[in-house]
Amino acid sequence: MSKQASNAVQLWDFPGGIHPPERKQLANRTPIAHLPLPSVLYIPLRQHLGSAGNILVQPGDTVLRGQALTEPGHTGGLPVHAPTSGTVQAIIDHPSNHPSMLAEPCIQLIPDGLHNSVAFEPISNPFEATALSLLQHIQQAGIAGMGGAGFPTAQKLAQSRRIELLIINGVECEPYIVSDDRLMREHAATIVRGSLLIGHILGNPAIVIAVEDNKPEAIQALEHALTQLDSQQAEQISLRVVPTKYPSGGEKQLIQVLTGKQVPARGYPAHIGIIMQNVGTAFAVARAIDHGEPLMERVVTLTGEAFAQPGTVWGLLGTPIAHLLTHAGLQTEAQQRIIVGGPMMGFTVTDLQIPITKTTNCLLAPTTTEIPAKRQELACIRCGACEQVCPASILPQQLYWLARAKDHDGLAQHHLSDCIECGACAYVCPSEIPLVHYYRQAKADIREAHIEQQKAEIARQRFEARQARLQREKEERLERHRQAAEARQKALAAREREHAQQAEPAAPNAPAAASDDPQKAKVAAAIARAKAKKAAQQVQQQSQQGDSESS
Length: 551
What we know:
Layout: H1 3-8, E1 33-34, E2 41-44, E3 54-55, E4 62-63, E5 70-71, E6 86-95, E7 103-111, H2 131-140, H3 153-158, E8 165-169, H4 179-186, H5 188-201, E9 206-212, H6 216-227, H7 231-236, E10 237-242, H8 251-259, E11 274-278, H9 279-291, E12 297-303, E13 311-316, H10 321-327, E14 338-340, E15 347-349, E16 362-364, H11 385-389, H12 396-404, H13 408-413, H14 424-428, H15 435-503, H16 510-516, H17 518-550
Parallel strand pairs: 1-13, 8-9, 8-11, 9-10, 12-16
Antiparallel strand pairs: 2-7, 3-5, 4-6, 6-7, 12-13, 14-15, 14-16
């Protein structure tokens, strides 16, 4: 397949978008390098979207490369694995690879320098294996999406039904970043293999590998890899070259470019029969299935004019970014910024001990002349430039005002959730308003409010359940008292009948006794009346005592 043939297929466009300087030549000229082992690794327990797993090791344990350090818990999650052999020093809270840099649980591993591995278990004849067995293998390998939020790959594939098109995203549209570019140049055959394996899991839909036209070497490598396939596989998979435009690598935007279809608001590509995976994810799937290797490292771009030796490296997960900066020859200057990610969607960090994770694709160290520091934020002049470049066709200016007012209902009505945080609006804003910052903060506030609402709902349900239980117990207690009172009334009536029956036999003899001795008869009658009165009083006292005890 030639590049001309790839371009012959009809392509569409998405609204908005920008063309910032690409600046990719800084880091894409040299092959992916291997770094010396760092002196310490901080391996986060959660490097994906979802919950962390259960820890399998303790301080002092010796582990091998590829050994599982965690296992999925009751709430799911992905395992993390030791990127090298060494000793578990501690399990600590360590600053996270996140804009907040809040501390999160990490396993502190001290490498022993030997890099000894466990015995990896590949799957032989994977195209004859069931989709379930392959999904379980991918899940045990800890593979998460390596081009976005890090959604667990096996879970994403398992939840997809009736997929007609699998898109392998190699667009990598953000300036400076070349991790996927170098991976496609050097490992195109493995990426194609992983794409076919993912397609097998999904029931063999059509597969498209998408690459921007500013990556000719990657395109050539993929074209060569596709020529090595048999005829059946070649019919299933194809290469599409798309025009360079930011953010064409966004999931919804790339789907629109390739198919002309739009993903519904608050919907997912699977709803229209499409699923997307990154080329790095396809590479990791192939390594896991064909070689049994879990996800332990990824390609990281080291770029920016503050680096003496920019390029790409294989970064072990958990490596402090300071180790990578040293390798690339960081030449610091006053007010030096280190950005995790690219200039559009990345975030600045101040702690250089934060670790590389499964979703870390770039460390950018620009000089102040290369990327000047943001000027003071000015008032919005309502120019509408942000709306014109928004690829999601939402209203950035209106979202800005709603975010400042913390109007969560208004933000939902204006589709804040559809914002992909590409930064195009902030790029063109003449007032230097960090619009994406406001959107991220609003999303975080909404998530927090949602969590609090869920907690309040759970508390309400527990309170209502308790009140219902107390009412039920009260009614049951009153019913027991009613039944006890009825039993006492029946017992009293029975005793009265018994005394009446005992007094009846003496009545026929009474006249005779009276005729014999009237005085004795009067005394006997008085004694009988006194005994009957006393018995009645005793029964009444017992009844009153039973009522007081019940109350």
